[in-house]
Amino acid sequence: WKVKEGEYPPPPDVEVGGESGRHGKLMILRGMHSIYVYFKESFSLGYYRWFMVATALGAAVAFGPINMFSIQYAQHLNVSMSSYGLYLVISCSISLVLSYTLGVVADRFHPLRMGILALTIYALLMFMSYEIELSPKAFAVIFTLHCVVSGGFYTVTASLGARLLPRSLFA
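User: That's the sequence. What structure does it adopt?
Assistant: Structure tokens below.
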């Protein structure tokens, strides 16, 4: 029941600074080499390029416009910033309560399917909100739903990289 340590040789002495910072230059070169290997492995296959572009731009294109202009639109509707902050608190609280359940459902049905479902729900929400004449109360409901559904999308797709990319290269 007890783990016994083996005998190891002492670590080599590392000269810090050395000949006018030679050690620091070697560390920078190693770091540059690691970055080069990362980009070479990541972008040499088309599959990885598509995955990275889709994960970087996919949700940003869908959720970005509302995230960028919601404060200005709330001000246009004469919604106070304290009310706007309250809507954010409410939506983050709802997202926090739902996150564990969404994670379990994503593990059960696959994050890609759940991400598609979340984007479909989000698209329906946005089409419905387009037809509604927005008042401050309608803005509160739609903005809160936007935050909850977009947060749900990020929650259900969080493990997508681990599920789609090869385990040997996923770190």
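DSSP finds six helices and no strands in the chain.
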